[in-house]
Structures are given as C-alpha cells and as structure tokens.
Design brief:
The chain has 5 helices and 41 strands. It is of the alpha/beta class. Strand 2 and strand 3 form a beta hairpin. The radius of gyration is 22 Å and the shape is globular.
Length: 438
C-alpha cells in the first residue's frame, strides 16, 4: 500500500510555519502521521506522491491512503476508518457528524478545509481530507462517518458571581478524534483536549469494562505500595529519568527519557518529552511539554502545550496556552484565560486573520517560536505573540491586551536587531525559516 500526501503550505498563526512542522503533543505533526500509520499497518508506507490540492487525486494508484498533512488524527480514528473502509471494499473518505458534540466543539470552529455533505440517512456531515482507495482513484467515494464516542469530563466550576450562565466547565473526552490544524487553538485542542482528555477517557473505559485490567492495576498498587493512579501500570517513565521521592505524579501520564523531576513537583495527566528538567515545586496539570524544555522552580502550567527547547521561568502561570519552540517566558508572567467583564466566548484569529468565536468561555493565548517574553508580563485571553518577537516589560507595556506582531518587537527599538535574528518569517518575506536553535 502507498500513501499520498496533500501538502498544506499555509502558515499557521502565530508560528509562521505550516501545520505539518508544528509540534502536537511532543512530536511534529508529520512525525505523528508516520508513527500512527506505522503503528496500524506494521510498517512505514512508501510515499506514492505529494499533491497540492484535492484536484490531483486522480493520480492516485492504489491501494493507497491519502491524507492532508495538516489534518491531525489519533491512532483510534485511523484504525476505525481503515477497518470500516476495508470492510466496504470501496473507495472511502473519512467524515465526522455535525451532531457530534466533541467534533462540533473542537474540530469545526476556525476550520476552512472541511467539505459539507450528508450521510446515507441524509444527516449533515463534514468530509475530512483522509481517503482510502482499494485499487486506484475513482470518483465514486463512500463517506465513512466516524463518531467520537465522547463523554463529558468536568475540570472546574465557575462561581455564580462570575457568570450565571456557564456553571460547571466541562471538556469532552473522546475515544477517537481528528482536527485540521489551522490555528493555535487547534494545536491546543489536539494536544490537550483530544490528546490528554482523550487518553483519560480511553483509560477510564478500559478500567470500567475489563476486570483483568482492574486486577492488574490493583496488584501493581499493592506491590509498589502506591496509590493506584501513581503506579507503573498508569505512568510510563523513560530510561535514565530521575524523579525525586517527594514528587507526586498521577496518571495516565508519560515521561520520556533523560528527564529530571525535582522535589515537590506535582504532575497530573501530562505528557513530557525527552531531556526535560522540571525543578522544585512546579505544578503541571493536563499539559504537554516538548523535549528539551526547562521549568525552574514554582512554574505552574494548566492545560497548556509547550513545544520543544523552551524555558518557562520561575513563578510563571500559564493557563490553556500554546507556547512555541525555542522560546522564553520570563519569571512571574501570567497568561490569563477568562474575560472578566464581557463574560462571553473568547475569540481567536482564523487562518485568514479574522477574529472568530471559538465557543470557549475560558481560553489562554499563544506565543510563537523563538520569542523572548520579559518578566512580569500579563497576557489577556485569545491574544497571540508572533514568532521572533521580543517583549521587554515596561510601564507602558506590561499588560498585553492585543496581539503583538513582529514589527512591534522591542528588539527593533533597543538597538539589538543584530543579536536576535528572525528565523520564522510570516511568508511575505523572502527569507526561509531556519532550524538554528538559540
């Protein structure tokens, strides 16, 4: 079987990179595709060709899998789609139902690439750029509707004096998921909601439905003398990783190789890459940390995705945010997640630069790649800081109430342009992104 890739060359704001190069969880999306396909098919599928649009599908020689490289999907979504497609014996295309609460909440807002259609019973669906062809391209393609099988999972309650309408805040834990990455919000949804909440949902179902799995977890808890969610059956710890005895880790969680977890650290349902250092008294809840990151003492992350080689300095609080690679967030900075006055869903920028509601009453903000954010900054919800920006705290700019572009970077005005090179131009510039790390 071959695989064909439709390349999406559009830059995702504020990172100024195509989606395939962005880190979702702890891996770039293109590596995630490789891993998921290899996991299902048992081997890496040979590349048939790359396309620039759907119009080139006629060149497909089957059997083949075709996907857009900006479409994130988990292993469970791919397995369900391929199994149903193989059973049908026909050319098939993945679709999600409009009525599905999780997909309607996370996959549809800010999206531009889905096509609308109807299923066999006439119900509205969204067609994704994921196909299976048993022999070669044919225009007669059957949609395979994939349900998320989601379940609400509460994460905190909003007091009545803040809003009378919202009540308890919930996210949907999914059994299978897919989303096109066209905004930093989609990176957040894929990494945190579909990734971590989805993993917790699948763990809960397995624990409820499989008695042998329950007994195995209980036996590990007895042998290791730990609380059930802190045992090795729930938490993966990589090679050469050191964890201080006073650190508290609850699962499901994944910690990579060569990490160092200091005293007093609390980690709950997180995914952490390789070569990560988390120092004294840091708190991480429902967050993903890319490889090579460093968190000094008392940093706090809540439902936040951090890409590789980034420093989150001491006493920093990040809530529901996405931070790009090779960046620095200074000590004592706070990224807020709630509109104090308006009390309405937060808006974010779509691929066309237009503000659009994302249906979330609480949501943080985004920092691009290769950024330097000074100490003591306060960031309002839904804002973005473009890649390669330097912000120095001052009386005139300590509270970031609007998105900041590269032209407003402080290094232009401090006479230090030669010391901070631009590695991620917006696409209008002729320069190409550099892989150079700071």
């Amino acid at each position: 079987m071959l695989r064909y890739i439709i390349e999406d060359s559009r830059n995702v704001p504020p990172f100024n990179q195509p989606a395939s190069l962005l880190t979702i969880g702890t891996k770039p999306l293109k590596i995630h595709h490789e891993d998921v396909l290899t996991e299902y098919f048992g081997q890496s599928l040979a590349l048939g060709n790359t396309f620039t649009s759907r119009r080139e599908l006629g060149m497909v020689q089957g059997p083949a899998i075709v996907y857009r490289d900006s479409l994130w999907f988990d292993a469970e979504f791919l397995a369900f789609f391929v199994e149903q497609a193989l059973k049908s014996g026909r050319a098939c295309r993945a679709a999600i139902p409009q009525s599905d609460a999780a997909f309607r909440t996370y996959s549809i807002p800010l999206a531009t690439t889905y096509e609308r259609g109807v299923d066999s019973s006439g119900k509205p669906i969204y067609l994704l750029d994921l196909w299976y062809f048993p022999s070669a391209y044919t225009p007669e393609i059957t949609p395979i509707v994939v349900e998320s099988e989601s379940e609400e999972m509460g994460f905190y309650s909003v007091p009545d004096f803040m809003t009378m309408e919202q009540g308890a805040l919930t996210h949907y834990g999914t059994m299978r998921a897919a989303v096109g990455i066209e905004s930093w919000v989609h990176v957040y949804f894929a990494s945190i909601i579909y990734g971590l909440f989805g993993r917790a949902r699948r763990f809960d179902r397995r624990a409820k439905e499989h008695a042998f799995f329950q007994l195995r977890l209980l036996w590990r808890a007895i042998l290791e003398q730990k609380q059930l969610l802190s045992t090795s059956g729930v938490i993966h710890i990589g090679k050469n990783t050191n964890i201080h005895p006073t650190a508290v880790i609850t699962g499901p969680a994944y910690i990579g190789d060569n990490c160092n977890i200091g005293p007093g650290v609390f980690i709950d349902n997180c995914t952490i890459g390789d070569n990560v250092t988390i120092d004294d008294s840091c708190t991480l809840m429902f967050s993903t940390i890319g490889s090579g990151c460093f968190l000094p003492f008392r940093a706090a992350l809540y439902l936040t995705a951090v890409m590789e080689n980034t420093i989150i300095a001491q006493n920093t609080c990040l809530q529901m945010c996405v931070i790009g690679r090779n960046s620095f967030v200074g000590a004592g900075s706070t990224f807020t997640d709630f509109n104090l006055v308006e009390q309405k869903p937060i808006r974010a920028v779509n691929m066309h630069g237009e503000l659009e509601e994302v249906g979330q009453i609480v949501l943080g903000s985004a920092v691009g790649h290769n950024c330097r954010i000074g100490s003591g900054m306060v960031m309002f919800p839904g804002r973005m800081i473009e890649s390669d920006v330097v912000l120095v705290a001052s009386p005139s700019r300590r509270v970031i109430s609007r998105s900041i572009g590269y032209a407003e970077s402080d290094h232009h005005f401090l006479g230090t342009e030669s010391h901070h090179k631009r590695h991620y131009p917006s696409g209008k510039e002729k320069d190409q992104p550099s892989d150079e790390s700071w």
